[in-house]
Amino acid sequence: MEMPRAAILGIGAYAPQRVMTNLELERLVDTSNEWILERTGIEERHIAAPEEAGSDLALKAARDALAMAGVSPGELDLIVCATVTGDMPFPSTACYLQEKIGAPQAAAFDIGAGCTGFLYGLHLVQHLIRAGAHRKVLLVGVEVLSRVLDWTDRSTCVLLGDAAGAAVLGVAQDQSGILATNIAADGQKGELLHLPAGGSLHPASHETVDAGMHYFKMNGRETFKHATRNMGEIAQQTLRDAGLGLGDVDLLVPHQANLRIITYLAKALEVPMEKVFTNVQRYGNTSSASIPLALTEAYGAGRVQKGQVILLVAFGAGLTWGSAALRW
Ligand code: UT7
Predict the structure, then answer these.
(1) How much is the pLDDT for 29?
(2) What is the count of structural domains for the chain?
(3) pTM for the full model?
């Protein structure tokens, strides 16, 4: 018997109201609008209000995804939250979201796979649905990275932003759905992108705080190299698994870390930029939220049409990378 296919039934996204421009950053650190634009393409990013936690952002994105799917919170049997900046180390942000959204029938847990978190989640959830283990799943990517940035470090603080994106998944009702997913990791290169303290290795102490070990750290140049290569390879693998070629792709929605990485990737894959969705200009890198935020905006702009092939690809801390091919 052929397994059912999983499909995205609804999507939604939310970014906090406060917008921080490059000009504002010029007043904080030794940087310039020109440098940020030229090296990253980023013009502005959204920053959560002090009282807004990850689960609050997630709630807003999730409500829109549920409304689009026509699914009520009570029907959910699983909530998966991809995040590395959850409300607190435990309990999971997914459990907070379960309570806030009112989904008592749903099991709930978080996954941490850096900026690839949403695609790790999509891989996991599609297989759970195909196996018949779950029927209606809420998958959220949410980050409040502004809380873990060193606002005196120009090499990182200009790059990131806060947001949430959500998808409701269920059994596909027609030819649409998730055609193939792939995920991968290379733990040897974990130090390229990490937040060293606050866990069991370096528990929070005055010393770790004084040493700035609770801040996001990245070796940008090295990360850049691995990002372009690994995303290209896994995207091609996913298309092959789906029985498709690059010419079949109607829209490429890559992780939004840097416009230069996206341009490199599109060139390497020979996908014209007209078929690539970008919004890193307005949000910066929102890590786990980036793909569902971009997909939601692409859909809102009419760039995702019924029957089209959408290719998603991401890369992040771990190192991790992943890809998904969908027929909308
Ligand atoms: O989402 C997870 C994956 N993350 C990524 O994919 C990020 C990958 N990396 C990148 O996007 C880029 O490497 C960055 C945008 C982070 C940096 O761009 P780059 O072209 O690789 O610059 P760089 O780090 O090589 O730095 C070039 C110069 C340095 O000065 P010197 O040593 O050449 O004098 C930096 O000190 O730019 C300097 N610099 C800045 N100058 C002004 C670094 N940050 C800034 C800044 N403003 N904000």
Answers:
(1) 97
(2) 2
(3) 0.97
